[in-house]
UniProtKB/TrEMBL annotation:
Species whose genome carries this gene: Nitratireductor pacificus pht-3B
E.C. no: 1.1.1.25
Name of this chain's protein: Shikimate dehydrogenase (NADP(+))
GO biological process: amino acid biosynthetic process; aromatic amino acid family biosynthetic process; chorismate biosynthetic process; shikimate metabolic process
CDD domains: NAD_bind_Shikimate_DH (cd01065)
Record carries keyword Oxidoreductase: yes
Binding positions for NADP(+) per the UniProt entry: G133, A134, G135, G136, A137, N157, R158, T159, L160, D161, R162, I222, G245
Upper classification of the organism: Bacteria, Pseudomonadati, Pseudomonadota, Alphaproteobacteria, Hyphomicrobiales
Gene Ontology CC: cytosol
HAMAP family: Shikimate_DH_AroE (MF_00222)
Amino acid sequence: MADPQTAGPHAFVCGHPIAHSRSPLIHGHWLAVHQIPGSYERIDVAPLDFEPFLRGIAEAGFAGGNVTLPHKEAAFHLVGRRDTAAEMIGAVNTLWFEGATLCGGNTDAYGYAAHLDASAPHWRNGRTAVVLGAGGAARAIIHALQEAGYKDVRIVNRTLDRATELTLRFGGGTSAHGWQELPVLLASADLLVNTSALGMTGKPPLEIALEPLPDHAIVSDIVYAPLRTDLLAVAEARGLATVDGLGMLLHQAAPGFERWFGVRPAVTDALRSHVLADLGNGA
C-alpha cells in the first residue's frame, strides 16, 4: 500500500526479486528535481500473488507503476487496454489508469530509440541491423528498429527456433539465423545490437569477431552492468561508434513518470551520474 503519510501521487516497480531495481533511483531523482510531493517504491510480488496485487493497486492508492521480470507477460494479459508497442512486443512494463481502466504500455522500444537518438543520431540512416538474442528484450529492440525504418533485421540466436518465432511475430523484413552465420551477416550491417545477457556481470562473455562490420556501423549493447562491456570495448578499439545500455534504462522510465506525476522529465548527465554512482557501488 502507498504510504498515506506521503502527499502526492504514488507509483511503484514490482517484480520478483526486486531489490536490484534502479527504478527508484531514477524516479526519486526526478521527484526531487521537480519538487513533486509523491513516492515511488519497490514491491516484491511473487508470481502467484501478481494478479490480486494488480487488481488492488487503485485501492492501495497507486496511480500506476512499472512491471519487471517475471511479470511483464502476465501484465499484458491482465490489463484492460494496451498501447501499440505493448501489442507488438507482447509484454507490459508500465501501468496507468484511464478512468477506472487499468492500461498497460511498453516503453522499452521507446527507451532504446531515444537513447540512440541522443548518442548516435545517424542510426536512423541505417536499414540493416543484426540483433543478437531472441528473448523479451529482442522483441522490444526489433519493434524499435522497424519503427525507425529498418527494412532488414537479422535475428541471430543459438536456438534457431526462437529466432524464427520472432520472424513470425514481426513479419516481413526479419530473418532468423544461427550463430555460425554472423561473419556474413555483419558484413553489410549498419547496426549491431546485443539483446542477450552475454557479457553481463556474472554471465558468460559475448565473444564475436567484429572485423566484418563496415566502418560506419554502430555497435549497441543493452547490458549496463558492466557499462563498458567487452563487445563495446572491442568495437571502440576498431574505431566504431558505440552505444552503452544505461541510456535505454533511463529513457524508458520517462513516459511512466509523466503519466503518474504530470511532468515529462529529462534524461540528464546528472541523472546518469546518479545511477552510475550506484552501479559503481554494486548496489
